[in-house]
Structure formats: C-alpha cells, structure tokens
Fold:
Amino acid sequence: MSILLSKNEYIDIAAKIQFPTDPFINGKFQKSKAGRVMESINPATGSVITNISACDDSDVNYAVEVSRDAFNSGEWANKHPSERKSVLLKLAQLIEENKTELAVLESLESGKPISECELTDLPETIVTIQWHAEAIDKMYDQISPANADSVGLITREPLGVVGCVLPWNFPLMMLAWKIAPALAGGNSVIVKPAEQTSMTALRVAELATEAGIPPGVLNVLPGEGPDVGEPMGRHLDIDAISFTGSTEVGRLFLEFSGQVI
Structure:
C-alpha cells in the first residue's frame, strides 16, 4: 500500500520535476511540426505550470505514418505473446518505481488531491496494465462448430493503428484502460490526451520505450481537440478510435467515422 509523504516532501518533488512538454513520436520527444505551444495551468492556483508543444494535423499525419510503419514491420505486432507480456509488465514496474513523480504531475495538472492520485489513480493504472499483460498469453483462439468436412477457426488479430482520445479527469487511469488492451493485442497506438492534462501520458510513453516498446508503437500528441482529435477521427489510416469524453464530442466522432474525405 502506498504511504503518503508530507506536504513539504511533495512540494520538493514538484520543484525538481523535469516536465515533459513535447510530443512523443517514434520513440522520442520532438517539437511539434505546428510550432505552437499551449499553457498547462494548475487549476488549484491558476498559475502556469509550463508551456506544452501543441500538435496539429501535420503531426497527426506524421504519427500515423510512423505508427503504420511500426505495425507493418511486425516488430511489436508479431512479437510472441509472452514477449509482449514481459514488456508490459516491465512498463507496470517502471510506473510503480516512478509513481510519486507521476502522482505529483497528475495532481498539478488536474487539481486532484495528491492522496487520490497516490492511493487510487496510480494503483489502478498499474493493475490495469498488469492485468492485460497477464492476459496476453492466456487468450486462446477458438474452433467453431462445423461438419466433418470443414474447420472453422476464430482467431484474434491486431487491428493496426488505434487512436485513443482521453478526458481530463482521470488522465492516467483512462490512459491505462485504453493503451493496455490495444498494446497487448499488438496494435500501434496514438494517444491524444486532454489539453488540460497532457504530461502524465507523455511521461508514460517515455517509460514505455524504456520498457521495450519499439519506436512508433506508442505515440502521444498533446493539443486542442479541433487540431488533433478531429484529424485523428477523420484519418483514413487509423483503424479504430477509442474516445472518452462529452456526448457532444462523441457524436462528432461518430460523424467523422461515417465521412469519406
């Protein structure tokens, strides 16, 4: 069980954190092609925490390209299930080792009490990734009922490139709920965090690369909804979108999925 630190200890940690502020694409942090920034605001104080590079459709196109190349290479999609399991368990371990830093980042950006981040959000994030990792080599395909002259096989295969659009209120938990099953299945993933809470997703992507996720398999694009979320929803080379947010924006994603451009 997590043990909470003192207020002054958390303040000291916050003062020393290196804020992740650039998009994470193809296994590394890099400046957005858009060349714009957006302010990350601490809702508890109204002060600016830092400036974060804001992406646009050019960054989306680039991320989709590297995600597709990574998927087609088979370096992750064709990896043995037990190997993907080991990498995701390593990611969960790295999140555990850096959980206080992540909790402070989440508290600063979201305004949530540090106790909730430490005692609820981080443990749930870690367990979610562990659960899906352990399921990888325990999911069996099936043989469907057929006559003696036929064999019907039901197999599970990765879709390809999956887009994940997150809400602001549970940044780490929602990130884990979306990327853990997508990565476990062998997909490449592009994450659009909420513009208010981008930094924990960026940090987890960095840890994922350290754990062994190949470049291009997990990418994080901070930015506004119309600049990043909509281009993702309209992109014809993204095979699936997982969205959590308002009903209004959810309707827009349904509209995007039915439009051919």
